[in-house]
Structure formats: C-alpha cells, structure tokens
Amino acid sequence: MQALREERKDFCFLVDQLHWFRERGEMFWDDWNAEAYPLNLVQGTLLGRRELMPAYPDLARGEDTGLLLGILQRGYGIARLRGAGWCYVYVCHGSNSWNAAHHAAISHAKGLRHAQLLQREGLLRRRLSEYANGFGSVRMPHESGFLVIASDGASR
After folding, report:
1. Is residue 64 part of a domain?
2. 91 within a domain of the structure (yes/no)
3. Pick from 6, 5, 72: which is nearest to 39 by CA?
4. How far apart are the first and last CA of the chain?
5. What is the DSSP string of 118-132?
6. How confident is the model at residue 10 (pLDDT cuts 50, 70, 90)?
7. Is the pTM here over 0.90, yes or no?
8. Which of 143, 137, 133 is closest to 155 using CA atoms?
9. What percentage of the chain reaches a pLDDT higher than 70?
10. Is 151 helix (H, G, I), strand (E, B) or coil?
C-alpha cells in the first residue's frame, strides 16, 4: 500500500516472489524483472483500487494475464514493488492450474543466483520464520549448489 500511495499509482504488483515446491522441499526466489516491460511483475500479486478493478476474465488459467492486460489497456498506473519476494509464497503442490514443469521453468529462468541469495540470506531467514506454520527446512538451489534454511530460520 505504501508503494501505491508514494508513487500515486492505481495498482501495485510485486516484482519478485518465493516459489515453494513443497514436495521437494525446495524454494526459489524468482525475480520477474527480467521480463519485458510492462509484464515485468508477478501478475498474481495485485493490490489496487477496487473502483478501478476490471473484471477477471472467465478463464480456467491465464486469468491474471487477462486482468493485467485490462489494467494496461485502460492506462492505469502501476507501481512495482521490488525486493519483497518474501511477502508472497507461491506453492507448487501438484494440483495447480499449471503443471510442475511450468513452475520449474519459471524458477529455472528467474531464480536468484548464489550471490543474490547470499545478499538476502538474513532477510530471508527472518521473514520465513514469521510464517505461522513454517516451511520446515527448505533447500534454495542455485548454480553452484544450494542454500539451506532450517525450520528454525537458521542457515546451513
């Protein structure tokens, strides 16, 4: 809400997210900023002004894209909130609209690299420990191995 107000925009989206593959115990921090503007955001993280909200298209999947296109076509202003991927954890649980291969491809293309994860390690440990039910120990794969965040929030 702060980004929406400060930038005086109509809608706000996160630019990054955590992507949790529950059954594998793996989590990725995905950065969507690599996508071409104006689609360089996580479409499912919408916060906006109710009175300006277009209707969601009646689709089995891809509805977030349809809604975003409606917002863009109407010329509404969009704030992009960066560096807060811990605010939104997308859970890949096997019954999602899109299959696991689709989600894995997203994280493979957009997942933060080792140095980027290390820069955010302390923040990530603190924020994951705030989730009520927790995630257990998660592995965060990167190009040279993986970072482990234990169930108590500690790194290993």
Report:
1. yes
2. yes
3. 72
4. 34
5. HHHHHHHHHHHHTST
6. very high
7. no
8. 137
9. 96
10. coil
> In whole numbers, what is the pLDDT of the chain averaged over residues?
90
Strands 47-48 and 78-81: unpaired
Evaluate whether 52 touches 10 at the Cβ level (below 8 Å). Answer: yes
Length of the chain: 156
Query: pLDDT digit string (tens) for 125-140?
Result: 999 988 877 788 899 9
Q: Does some domain include residue 56?
A: yes
Domains identified in the chain, total number: 1
Where is pLDDT greater, at 103 or 94?
103
The contacts of residue 7 (CB under 8 Å, 6+ apart) are 77, 79
Q: Quick one: average pLDDT of 18-23? A: 93
So what's the pLDDT on residue 19?
Answer: 96
Residue 55 exposed, middle or buried by CB count within 10 Å (0-12, 13-18, 19+) = exposed
Distance CA 73, CA 23 (A): 39
Scanning 16-110, the segments in alpha helix (DSSP H) are 63-73, 100-110
The parent domain of residue 46 ranges over: 2-114
Q: How far apart are CA 51 and CA 74, in angstroms?
A: 13
Is 125 inside any structural domain? no
